[in-house]
Amino acid sequence: xxxxxxxxxxxxxxxxxxxxxxxxxxxxxxxxxxxxxxxxxxxxxxxxxxxxxxxxxxxxxxxxxxxxxxxxxxxxxxxxxxxxxxxxxxxxxxxxxxxxxxxxxxxxxxxxxxxxxxxxxxxxxxxxxxxxxxxxxxxxxxxxxxxxxxxxxxxxxxxxxxxxxxxxxxxxxxxxxxxxxxxxxxxxxxxxxxxxxxxxxxxxxxxxxxxxxxxxxxxxxxxxxxxxxxxxxxxxxxxxxxxxxxxxxxxxxxxxxxxxxxxxxxxxxxxxxxxxxxxxxxxxxxxxxxxxxxxxxxxxxxxxxxxxxxxxxxxxxxxxxxxxxxxxxxxxxxxxxxxxxxxxxxxxxxxxxxxxxxxxxxxxxxxxxxxxxxxxxxxxxxxxxxxxxxxxxxxxxxxxxxxxxxxxxxxxxxxxxxxxxxxxxxxxxxxxxxxxxxxxxxxxxxxxxxxxxxxxxxxxxxxxxxxxxxxxxxxxxxxxxxxxxxxxxxxxxxxxxxxxxxxxxxxxxxxxxxxxxxxxxxxxxxxxxxxxxxxxxxxxxxxxxxxxxxxxxxxxxxxxxxxxxxxxxxxxxxxxxxxxxxxxxxxxxxxxxxxxxxxxxxxxxxxxxxxxxxxxxxxxxxxxxxxxxxxxxxxxxxxxxxxxxxxxxxxxxxxxxxxxxxxxxxxxxxxxxxxxxxxxxxxxxxxxxxxxxxxxxxxxxxxxxxxxxxxxxxxxxxxxxxxxxxxxxxxxxxxxxxxxxxxxxxxxxxxxxxxxxxxxxxxxxxxxxxxxx
Amino acid sequence: xxxxxxxxxxxxxxxxxxxxxxxxxxxxxxxxxxxxxxxxxxxxxxxxxxxxxxxxxxxxxxxxxxxxxxxxxxxxxxxxxxxxxxxxxxxxxxxxxxxxxxxxxxxxxxxxxxxxxxxxxxxxxxxxxxxx
Lengths: 773, 132
Fold this sequence. Notes:
The complex is a heterodimer.
Chain A: H1 9-34, H2 39-68, H3 75-80, H4 87-92, H5 98-119, H6 124-144, H7 168-183, H8 185-197, H9 203-233, H10 243-268, H11 272-294, H12 312-333, H13 349-371, H14 373-383, H15 396-402, E1 408-409, H16 412-432, H17 443-449, H18 451-466, H19 472-499, H20 505-525, E2 528-535, E3 540-542, E4 545-553, E5 562-569, E6 572-576, E7 579-582, E8 589-592, E9 594-597, E10 601-611, E11 619-624, E12 628-631, E13 634-642, H21 649-655, E14 659-669, E15 672-676, E16 679-682, E17 688-689, E18 693-694, E19 700-707, E20 712-718, E21 729-738, H22 741-771
Antiparallel strand pairs in A: 2-21, 3-4, 4-5, 5-6, 7-8, 9-10, 10-21, 11-20, 12-13, 13-14, 14-15, 14-16, 16-17, 18-19, 19-20
Chain B: H1 2-28, E1 30-31, H2 35-40, E2 45-52, E3 58-60, E4 63-69, E5 76-81, E6 94-102, E7 107-117, E8 127-131
C-alpha cells in the first residue's frame, strides 16, 4: 500500500469508481444486447452509466478544487499552476498538462454519452457498449498516469502556467478540441455496432448529426488554435503544419469525407461500405494523432513540448485493440454490406460528391504521411540502403530510394506544394456541385445556371490581375473560388426561399469554404514582410508607410510594457503597440505582435530586439506640499499625499501590512495640465516597491522617497531632457497580410452553416426513430 | 466507352500526383544530420542539433549568430539566424537549427530554431519552443 500514500485519495477513488461503473454499465449493455427490450436491464445499464459520469465529474471537480485552492502537495498542481495566477488561469491549468488533458477528454466523452444513449434509440445497447469501451481506454491511461500524484515535499509555490498559455483563447481552446476528439468515437461506435448487428440501413441516419456536430466542434477548435497562434506567437502565420495542428486536421478532413458520404447514403443508399471504413478511420486518426503527439516520438520535431509519460505502450495497445477489432469486422462484413450501384451520369451531383470525397481523402493522406515523415524515414533507414551505405556499384534505384532512408521531416513547403492542386480541384468541384442535380443535367442548362457565377469569377480574376497577381494557377484559383462562392450563395438563397434557413446550411457552409480559399491564397502567397530598425523619433519608410518609434511605455497595472509606434499610411495615422516584456515568473523576454486590422489587410508589427540606448539622466527633485519645479519645460507641482490610494494607509500600517501612499502631482507640459499619482509601497520590514509612472507627453517619474514628518517627496524625473547619446532602437518585423480576415470570416460562415445543417439532421434522425418504431 | 476513358484519365492523374508527392517528399525532406555530413553539403536543407556554446551568441544587423557543439564528436558549428530572437536564448541548453550550410561563409544559414531551455518549472523536462 506504499504507492497509495503518494496518491491523493479522493481523486483516485473517484476515477477508480468511474472505471468500476463504466465496466458495470458495459456489462449491463452487453446483457441488454442479448435480451433486447428488457426494461430492467436497460435501466440498470443506464443507471450505472449515470454513476460513471458522476464519478468522472467528481474526479474532475477534485482536481479543480485542488487547483483553485493552490494545493501544491499535488504534483500536477505544482507543475502547472502558481500561487499568483488569477483564478481562471488556475482553473485552466487543468488542461495545461497531458494528464489533465486526458481527464478533460474523458469528461467531455462521458457527458456526450448522455444525449447519445437517448439519440441512439433502438441501437442503444451496441452503440453504448462500443462507446463505453472507448472511454474505458481513456480511463486506463488515466489510471496509469493519474493527475493525483502527491509530492513527498510540499513546495511553497507552483511552477506556474506556461506564459504562452496565459491567454483567454487558450482557456477555451483545449476543452473544445478534446470535445471534438471525444465526439469522433460516436460515428465509430455507430459503425461498429452496425457491423456487429449486421444492420446497415439505419446507422447513417443516426450517426449523421453526430458526425456533423463533431466536425463542427473540431473545426471551431482548429479556428481558435489558428487565431491564437496568429495573435500571440509573432511569426506571422496561423498555420504551420506542426504535428499537433496536423493531428487535429486529419480527423477534420476525414470527418468532411464522412459527412458527405453519410449524406449520400441517407439520400441514395450508396457509399455504405466506404462510410463504415471512414467512420473507423476517423477514430483511428484521433488515436494515432494522440500517439504521435503525446508519446514523445516527435520530440525533436515540434513546437509543442512533448514529454514521454511512458504511455506510448498504452496508446499503441489501445490503437491495436480498436484497429484490429474493427479491421476484423470490416474484413468479415464489408463484402456482404448491401449497397446501391452507382448509376450516376457523369455530370451529376453524385459523381461530383464522389470526386470531392476522393480529393479530400487525398489531402488527409498527404497530411498524415507528412506528419508521420519522421517515423516513416526512421523506419526506412533500418530497411533500405542509406546514403552512407551506398557503393559506386549501387543501382540508380537504390540511390533514389536511399534518399528516403535518412531520418528527417518534411517542411511546411511540402504540404503547401501538394495542396495547390488539391485546392484548385476542390474549388472547381465546389463551384459545380450547386448547379448539378442527382439526375443528368444538360450542358446548356448548366451553362445558364453558371451565368452569374461566371461573371463574378471574371471580375474577381480581372481584379486580381490588376492587383498584381501574375501566377496563372493563382488566377485560375481565384476565379474558381469566386465562382464557387457565387454558385453556392445562389443555391443558399434558393434553399432559404423554399425551406427556410435550416435547409440552406450545407450550401452556406460551402460559401464559407469559397471565402476561406480566397483568404488563404491572398494572405499566404501575397504577404510582404520587411525587417527594419526604428530609431526613436526618426521616421522610416516601410512598405509605403512611415513608421516612427515614439517611446517605450513602462508597465502600468495589467498592461505589460510595450512600445508605441506611429504608423502613417495614406495620410492617416494610427498607433501600434508591439510588446516585448519580461515574464515575472520565468524572467523570459516575451514578444507579442501588434495587429492593426485595415479594410483589406492586416498590418502585423512584431518586435525583434530592443536597444534602450543611453538612458537619459535622472533629475532628482525634493518638493514640499505645494512646491513646484521645472525640468526641461515640464512643470511639476506636489499637491499632497493620498493616503487612500490602495485602502487606508494608516490602517494598513497598524496592521503591519503593505502600506501604499500616493503623491498627487500636477504636471504642466506644452500648455496642458494633467494630474498623475505615482505610488510608493512599503512593508514594516522595509521593503520598498515604487514603480515608474508615465509622464503625459513622454518620460517618467518615480516616487523615490517620502518624508512624512516634513510632508515632502523625493522625485526622480527621467526621459524628459533631450539626450546626446545613442537613442533607443527597436528592431521590428513589419508584415502586410492581405485579405486574411477572409479566413476567419469564411470559417465563421462554415461553422454557422454547419450548425444549421446539424440541427436539421438531428430533427430528421429523431423523426425517423419515432416513425419507424 | 466514354466512362472508361475517364477512369483511365483519373487513374493517370492520381498516379501523376502520387509521383509528384513522392519526388517532392524526397527532395524536400529535411534530414537530421551530423555536423560532418552537414558540412559535406550533401543535403540542401537540413537540421542539426547541438549544445549552445556559452557566450558565443551575438545579435546584429537583424541576425543572431551563435556556435553549437555536437555532443558526440565535440565538433562546433557557427549558425546564423535572421528572425525574432528567441526568448532567453543565452540560457539555451541545446538548439536544433534547420537551414542550409553555406560553404563560402562556413556557417549554417538557419531559418528555423528549436530551442530547449533549462526549465524554469522545476521537476519538468526542458521546455521547447520553435522560432521561424
